[in-house]
Design brief:
With 186 residues, the chain is α+β, with helices and mostly antiparallel strands. The protein folds into two domains: 8-43, no CATH class; 47-184, Nucleoside Triphosphate Pyrophosphohydrolase (Alpha-Beta Complex). The protein is 22% helix and 41% strand. The protein has a four-stranded mixed β-sheet with strand order 7-4-10-9, with helices on both faces. The protein has a three-stranded antiparallel β-sheet with strand order 1-2-3, with no helix packed on it. The protein is elongated, with a radius of gyration of 19 Å. The relative contact order is 0.18.
């Protein structure tokens, strides 16, 4: 929130906490036209999205059951940030948890807001190179399968709308030059 923005916060209070996942905040605001409104904001600690690339250039993606949409979604591994853990460290932890992976290297690719119309979550996108797969260590609420696909297969899924998780699709597209470099070097 910038002090020189067009909206002025008149009152702000927390209406719900669901640690460590999110907080709902209710703000009463003054609008630029002089009117007033109520805005509910989802505060999230941010998260990491990891694009796992195997040494041969293929990608590891997950098919994840999402209770909120009552269906299966194709995604890349991701997870929320935790206090005391840097985004780089969290990326390695989520890679190990969701696909059982370790990486020769992890590099930050981009950052973006995931839902700026209702929340403040920032996505930290990482490319994991030289991933070796082992056993997954899923949380009780995680129901997911890991799949190994070529870059072209994943791009086709994005184009056809099959990979419909917005942050995952954007992360892959933002990393596309680096992913093509990996695929073409094999």
């Amino acid at each position: 929130m910038t002090p020189d923005g067009p909206f002025k916060t008149l009152d702000s209070r927390i209406v719900y906490r669901n640690p460590p996942w999110y907080i709902l905040r209710r703000d009463e605001i003054a609008l630029p036209n002089g009117g007033q409104a109520v805005y509910t904001v989802v505060e999230r600690p941010g998260g990491v999205w990891i694009i796992p690339a195997l040494p041969d250039g293929r990608l590891v993606i997950i098919r994840n059951y999402r209770y909120t949409v009552q269906g299966w979604l194709w995604e890349i591994p991701a997870g929320g940030l935790r206090d005391g853990i840097t985004p780089d460290e969290m990326a390695r932890l989520e890679l190990a948890e969701e696909v059982g992976g370790t990486a020769e290297s992890i590099e930050r690719v981009a950052t973006f807001y995931t839902m700026p119309g209702i929340g403040d979550e920032v996505a930290h996108v990482f490319l994991a190179r030289g991933v070796a797969l082992g056993e997954q260590h899923l949380e009780p609420t995680e129901v997911m399968e890991r799949h190994i696909l070529t870059l072209d297969e994943v791009l086709g899924m994005i184009e056809r709308g099959e990979l419909a998780d917005g942050p995952s699709a954007l992360a892959i597209l933002l990393a596309l030059p680096k992913l093509r470099q990996i695929a073409n070097s094999r």
